[in-house]
């Protein structure tokens, strides 16, 4: 039986494989026992979800807290939209969902603001999904969709099950500000408390909770027209 040690560098989005038994370096990894050395279980789950798409493995995961055997989680490709009006105000939703917690299952006791968007449907490419989500959540169809600028991965606990959300953030603009909600789902009607066009000065000065947490850090370059040449990976 082959034993493989994998050291993970999540921040740099890479991993390094070290064979515990070099003589077996050429053997197939399928069926191997893989030992992951990581810092947090949530990160482990994220990596495991990726590996499961490439191979069938029996995994032994080592974390700082304990030695834990886990199974890959469900992944959800998602589009999110940085939706601006003609005055550079950003549209955000305020919500609170008692069925959604963080990667450790903790549920916020307060509402929070986040960008519009949602899951990518089967057969959709990302731009098509972004335009559909804009239409469903705002009623807007006359939209200028820009490039994808950010990418983020986060683990959330949905009804007790951990899920990996793979989020691609698009820029988009509109000349209209009226918002319509006739296409919202029952769930959206239940958890969304407000929608608001945020002025940048007001947003930057606010002490309310915004997701991603690094939103304020990464917005200013975009408003100056300084778009990244390639999609950049942002934090939580």
Automatic annotation (TrEMBL):
The chain crosses the membrane at residues 31-51. One of its GO terms (molecular function) is hydrolase activity. It comes from the Bacteria. CDD domains: NUDIX_Hydrolase. InterPro entries: NUDIX_hydrolase-like_dom_sf, NUDIX_hydrolase_CS, NUDIX_hydrolase_dom. Keywords: Hydrolase, Magnesium, Membrane, Transmembrane, Transmembrane helix. Residues 74-221 form the Nudix hydrolase domain. Its cofactor is Mg(2+). This is NUDIX domain-containing protein. It comes from Parvibaculum sedimenti.
């Amino acid at each position: 039986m082959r034993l493989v040690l994998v050291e993970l560098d999540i921040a740099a989005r890479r991993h390094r494989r070290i064979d515990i038994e070099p003589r077996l370096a050429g053997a197939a990894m399928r069926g191997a026992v893989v030992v992951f050395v990581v810092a947090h279980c949530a990160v482990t789950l994220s990596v495991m979800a990726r590996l499961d798409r490439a191979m069938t493995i029996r995994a032994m995961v080592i974390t700082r807290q304990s030695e834990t055997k886990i199974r890959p989680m469900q992944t959800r490709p998602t589009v999110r939209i940085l939706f601006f009006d003609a005055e550079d105000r950003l549209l955000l939703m305020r919500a609170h969902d008692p069925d959604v917690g963080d990667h450790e299952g903790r549920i916020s006791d307060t509402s929070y603001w986040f960008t519009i968007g949602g899951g990518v449907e089967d057969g959709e490419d990302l731009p098509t999904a972004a335009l559909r989500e804009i239409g469903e959540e705002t009623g807007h169809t006359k939209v200028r969709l820009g490039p994808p600028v950010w990418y983020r991965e986060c683990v959330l606990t949905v009804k007790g099950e951990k899920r990996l959300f793979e989020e691609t953030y698009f820029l988009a603009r509109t000349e209209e500000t009226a918002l319509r909600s006739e296409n919202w789902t029952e769930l959206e009607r239940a958890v969304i408390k407000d929608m608001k066009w945020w002025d940048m000065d007001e947003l930057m000065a606010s002490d309310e909770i915004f997701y991603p947490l690094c939103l304020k850090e990464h917005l200013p370059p975009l408003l100056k027209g300084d778009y990244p040449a390639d999609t950049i990976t942002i934090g939580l």
